[in-house]
Amino acid sequence: MNGNPPPDQVLGLEDLHVTVHHGAATAVSGVTLSVHTGEIVGMVGESGSGKTLTCRAALGELPAGCAVSQGTISFETNNVTDLSRRGWERLHGTGIGAVFQDPSSYLNPSLSVGSQLTEVLRVKQRLPRREAHRKAIELFTVVGLRQPERVFHQVPAELSGGMLQRVMIAIAISCGPRLLIADEATTALDVTIQAEIIELLRDLRDQRGLAVLFVSHDLAVIRELCDRVVVFYAGEVVESGPVEEIIERPRHPYTQALLQVASVGDFSRRELRVIPGQPPQVGAHISGCRFAERCPAAIDACRAAAIDLVRLGPRHQSRCVRANDPELADVLETELAAR
Amino acid sequence: MTAPATVETGARPLLSVENVDVVLGRGWRANHVLSDVSLKIWPGEIVGLVGETGSGKTTLARTVVGLVRPRDGRVVYDGTETSRLRGRALRSERRQGHVQLVFQDPLRSLDPDLTVEQIVGEGLRIRGGLDGEEIKARVTDALGKVGLDATLLSRTPGQISGGQRQRVSIARALATDPGLLLCDEPVSALDASNRNYILRLLGDLRDSLNLPIVIISHDLSSLAGIADRVVVLYRGTIIEDGPVNQVFSAPRHPYTALLMASAPSVKHDRPLSIHQLRRTAADPDLRPDLLAASACVFAPRCPFAIDACAVQPALEPVPAAAGGRWSAACHRHEEWPALARERAAVAAPR
């Protein structure tokens, strides 16, 4: 993907490396991914796989001690890798919106949620007071809050978790961003509310052409919402492709393992499986495949040298030496069943 | 792990919660959290308690261990009416650690300054009667039961992983040899692999110690793999209670069906979609009597509500079920599944 990015690309990460502990270790290594207009891309992986760091790099909000050491981040047609603080601030809200796991910790507990939304509109879009109020009510309606006039004057403590997440989404989309980054945005919610938020995100995509980067550790949630999925393991992308294809025919053993432990939703009694072992420590030196230690199908070639992403279809890639091995699926099936 | 619990219906239940009403707060702040809740736990069974935020799951668990006093009704544990104990008798009962609670977020419920050894041994020290050597042996034994080795003894909660922390909280609860374990959302903070690991561990503990376990969760699908019975709570009222395989194959309450339809899944083959179970703009406006306090708790959200639903139905045995151990509280438990199938399975375009 050299030269100019395609016109409908909203976010592009190219060979992104993020170091932590002031450069002592690399937590994200060589991540390449893109999100296009009207597309919902899911990022999935275990805790500590680098999903959140990648998101924060794409938001220009890396925590202290972390830095982009290599690679580029582009937003629409601009390279924003070395954007200044002011530049990022201008992009936040108007270009990129974000929602996170725990909505109550991002809202001021003593101000009404309406005033926190109008504040954004007045600062970012310089709307007059009355106009900001009208727009706020309109946004509360868009995100499906009933009685928006009433909600406007309520403080966060008076609203449920699902309503607060809707308020956060209203704030995130208030200034018409083209990209929404949702980091575990439905994880802490009840299943019925989670289903409603998933529908809301899908509606926003359909009606506004919003691009969404949706992070979750649950493949089942990704399956419900996303068009494409990027699987993270130990700071690397190990597989990416259309959701349907990856759920039907995963071509990386780690994706296969994630599928084995995901909620199947058939509510029948079945063996609860686990992925044995632990992911490698951040910064560990591994010569070959990072999943090899936990992989039931590992062979000598896996540990010999670094593994490249193998292209398996027009949009499907996998970082596995045996990705094209017809026996891989059988080996995984029997090995995983035996555990 | 998958063997169903052997429950002798003639035996005495280990725990019996009878017609419990709980009101938290006073005056205009009073909040009726549980109304007329009755629940029995039999030896050796795993019961899943599901419901959404604010449905009273946690309050019920707190009532059972005596942290909340019911306004009405009683809690009987192994023949002792624990809800009537006061003062010295209550303190002495609590110190025995018969009923243990495992909290949701181990990072917040474990003291960050204590070592794993101190955390797990604290209950034993408070109960008294054991010397340091014996406590240490019991602590190591409890950690062994949850699959952790003694090298973790000197670590603090901040120095171990999330899955290990949850195992430490379970070990802490096991140290006093409880007769009943209550786990409040034990897996909701964990990723899928660790979630399954903890659930499997709880299943193994039931098998090896014959320990009855109540697992509180808002996620039905993770309970399907492990629980013997499921109890569904909605706004402080039990609306369905029955064996997991029966309830999950043909739920008798529309809310149970809604919970099942809402659970995310990697497969797309649900018997009913959420749109068939939710009120839509096409449904007639809600009559005011369905919003009254005496109406069925689920009526305001129920697309199948009729006049009769202005009165909360009692939890009654499902006629078709063998053994009478499956009950539901719905006036229309016979009719609604057919009505649901006639509704549109996709959302109306907005």
What would your notes on this structure say?
Chain A has helices spanning 51-58, 85-91, 113-124, 129-142, 148-152, 161-173, 191-208, 219-225, 243-248, 253-261, 300-304, 328-338, and strands at 9-20, 25-36, 40-44, 67-75, 78-79, 96-99, 179-183, 211-216, 228-233, 236-242, 310-311, 317-318. With 339 residues, chain A is α/β, with parallel strands linked by helices. In chain A, helix 3 (113-124) crosses helix 4 and helix 10 crosses helix 12. The model of chain A has no long low-confidence stretch (mean pLDDT 90). Chain B folds into 3 domains: 11-98 and 178-249, 3-Layer(aba) Sandwich (Rossmann fold), CATH 3.40.50; 106-177, no CATH class; 251-342, no CATH class. In chain B, helix 4 runs parallel beside helix 6 (162-174) and helix 5 packs across helix 6 (162-174). The model of chain B is unreliable at 1-9 (pLDDT under 50). Chains A and B meet through helix 7, helix 8 and helix 10 of A and helix 7, helix 8, helix 9 and helix 10 of B.
Largest sheet features of chain A: 8 strands, mixed
In this structure, how is the largest beta sheet of chain B organized?
8 strands, mixed
- Identify the CATH homologous superfamily of chain A: P-loop containing nucleotide triphosphate hydrolases
The multimeric state of the shown protein is heterodimer
Strand order of the largest sheet of chain B: 6-7-8-3-9-10-12-11
Q: What's the architecture of chain A, going by CATH?
A: 3-Layer(aba) Sandwich
Biggest sheet strand order of chain A reads 6-7-8-3-9-10-12-11
Counted up, domains of chain B total: 3
CATH class of chain A equals Alpha Beta
Helical stretch count of chain A?
12
CATH class of the largest domain in chain B: Alpha Beta
